[in-house]
Amino acid sequence: QNFPNVRRLRLNNPLPKVLEQLQSNVMPYLEYLSVYYTYNMYEMVLLHEKVFSNRILHLKSCELYEKQTLITIPNWTQSPSIRILKTEFIDSVIYKIILSACPNLYFLKFLLYSSNGIPTNILSHKNLKYMIIELCDTDWFYDDNIISGFLTCVPNLEQLEIHRRNYTQNIRESIEYYDWLSTIINNYLPLLRKFLFYFHLSKDEKLNRFIDENIIIKIQQDFSNVHKGQYKAQLIIDRESL
Questions:
Q1: Residue 156: φ, ψ to 5°
Q2: Which of 15, 101, 117 is nearest to 62 (CA)?
Q3: What Å distances lie between residue 222 and 5, 105, 113, 232, 235, CA to CA?
């Protein structure tokens, strides 16, 4: 059966037989695809191959949300139509493959998974303009080294959004000499126009006593002091449940 009028499709934990229908001859004009799944199956590997090897010819935007790193295979080719990609766990190896597979990618959102360390030998990607990175590790300085490696290859980035969390008692140590990514931005992102830094703190009462009003004021002052470049910078501090 053919569905030529389907432009948008959203799937939550789809069955294998549903994923098998994601073919160019079944939905030839599919442009927006969102897939949310919480379990592993071989069909997801095949879906990734379709998405990143131009098997869905008109696909512009893709959301792939899973509870593990994005599954890659060596023979991905290229999908020049993809402009927007949102996913969860990405490490340096997957990041390199995605940039190669999506030469016209404009927007990228992901959760940084630091298992494979700092990326190397990544070709410059000139079309990526907007990036959102979520961080979950507590080692800020190690994460920043990886972020630096990620940003060296996207010199035309115009908007950067960072989500960082601190649910530990050592927040004072984390922020004492932290430059809030200002050095990385100045070194690698000459065209940046807007920088948003979301600092998510815990609502847990046991942790709240380590984060008093004086610390909040210091964080805000430090952030303002280091971000005085040609771009607009904003720090957003909120508290969320564990």
A1: -95, 10
A2: 101
A3: 52, 33, 27, 15, 10
Q: Which two tokens stand for residue 198?
A: 């979301």
Q: What is the DSSP letter of 70?
A: P
Tell me the whole-structure pTM to 2 decimals. Answer: 0.90
C-alpha of 103 from chain center: 16
By the 8 A CB rule, do 44 and 69 touch? Answer: no
Structure tokens at 124: 């410059």
Distance CA 220, CA 187 (A): 22
Contact 76, 50 (CB under 8 A): no
Strand, helix or coil at 175? helix
Query: Beta partners for 198?
Result: 163, 236
Q: Give the range among 10-14, 67-71, 98-102, 154-158 with minimum mean pLDDT.
A: 67-71
d(CA 60, CA 85): 9
Q: Which positions ≥6 away from 188 have C-beta within 8 Å?
A: 148, 151, 152, 154, 155
pLDDT of residue 209: 62
pLDDT digits 0-9 by tens, 108-134: 999 988 766 777 788 899 999 999 999
